[in-house]
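subagent[fold] <- orchestrator: predict structure for attached chain, return tokens only, no commentary.
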Amino acid sequence: MKLFYALRSALFVIWMAVTVVPVAIAAIVLSVFVRGNPVYWTCVFFLRLSIWGARGICGVRWKIEGMENLPTQAEATSAVILLSKHQSTWETFAYPTLMSHPLAYVFKRELLYIPFFGWAMARLDMIHIDRSKRSQAWSKVAAQGKRLAAKGVWVIMFPEGTRIARGRRGEYKTGGTRLAVETGVPVVPIAATSARCWPRKSFMLRPGLIEISIGKPIASQGREPAELMREVEDWIEAEMHRLDPEAYKA
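subagent[fold] -> orchestrator:
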């Protein structure tokens, strides 16, 4: 069975490698003539192909709760900061395909050097930071985050900073809630059980169901970043225990 999963996973990796090249080239060429949503949705097309590929090739399905907690299309100028559990590559690919509103990720700039994938990302209006320069990184997040929030863009961050093993809790950092407090934008916590099917630091995918739960917006005005992050953390971790009780038996 393990060999079967490995073969399916290898086929999925080939699928991503084959599809990323033409989509990335299209996005880069398009960005010469236009900016904004057309380029964004072109890049999302590759992510959608990847998520569909994970489902069709590897049997990775998903279920979402709480979509009603996000601003509607009629509220297109309503910015939020999404703060998500981070277990896998899957959710970084999936969120832009599942949400009707463009997202702006905060991510390490090293990703920009990945051929085709990173080159296309560089043409998007997102926040890439140098993690080795923490003070400068925060200044960039604050400045860019305020600008994007003013435009109604949804900024998405992973408070734990890196992918966390299934059943584990990382250190929740306050960057996302600091940005929320400074901009007055509400935060939306998200729990995701992606490591059930796509573990961190691995391309060995297993069939199964990934569950995503989107919490209600939490107002940031008048809050302290650390205290607000504790509320976000408590909600996410409680939801992770509910969604994936097998991972938390120990």
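orchestrator: received. Logging for downstream: The first helix runs from residue 2 to 33. Residues 60-248 form a domain with the Glycerol-3-phosphate (1)-acyltransferase fold (CATH 3.40.1130.10).
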